[in-house]
Design brief:
The strands form 2 sheets. Strands 2, 4, 5, 6, 9, 10 and 11 form a 7-stranded mixed beta sheet that branches. Strands 1-3-8-7 form a 4-stranded antiparallel beta sheet, with no helix packed on it. The model has no long low-confidence stretch (mean pLDDT 95). By secondary structure, it is mainly β. 34% of the residues are buried.
């Protein structure tokens, strides 16, 4: 079992940046692929980014590629999502996820953190 707690969400103006963090506890963190998903109001949850067990491989949705960067620190049991050049379409609840599949991990979920981008 893995417990995930996100932080770092908030309100930012268009063009601004935020960094989300996800702290994990429970089983060995480095044995899980980690990812970020997001859900905008009235829409289904969608994949944003993922990172492999040791951080050597990353994968991004086309909508965030070039603007978002996922990283992890296995010594701190934490995964990050650096979000730059934010726009109002990035407004959503952002969820951290862990899983045995690194490409789109989805076995365990955090509670989510709200990101709101104003125009």
């Amino acid at each position: 079992q893995v417990q995930l707690v996100e932080s770092g969400g908030g309100l930012v103006q268009a063009g601004g940046s935020l960094r989300l963090s996800c702290a994990a506890s429970g089983r060995t963190f480095s044995s899980y692929g980690m990812g970020w998903f997001r859900q905008a109001p009235g829409k289904e949850r969608e994949f944003a980014a993922a990172i492999s067990w040791k951080g050597s491989m990353t994968h991004y949705a086309d909508s965030v590629k070039g603007r978002f960067t996922i990283s992890r620190d296995n010594a701190k049991n934490t995964v990050y999502l650096q979000m730059n050049n934010l726009n109002p379409e990035d407004t959503a609840v952002y969820y951290c996820a862990a899983g045995s599949s690194w490409y789109k991990p989805s076995d365990y979920w955090g509670q989510g953190t709200q990101v709101t981008v104003s125009s």
